[in-house]
Structure to design on (59 residues):
């Protein structure tokens, strides 16, 4: 299904998946006793790391 999407939609889906993964990591950190900023910081961190990976991959 991913291959049938147009290039802009693939980029959007990829970046949305990175954002969701970061938010889930933040929720896990928050659940383990992290502070209230764990979720937004993990989401932003995942976006930054994801963009670096996408840039390195040539996406």
């Amino acid at each position: 299904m991913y291959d049938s999407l147009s290039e802009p939609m693939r980029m959007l889906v990829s970046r949305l998946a990175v954002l969701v993964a970061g938010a889930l990591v933040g929720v896990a950190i928050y659940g383990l006793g992290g502070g209230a900023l764990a979720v937004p910081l993990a989401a932003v961190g995942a976006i930054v790391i994801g963009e670096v990976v996408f840039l390195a991959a040539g996406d």
About this structure: The radius of gyration is 13 Å.
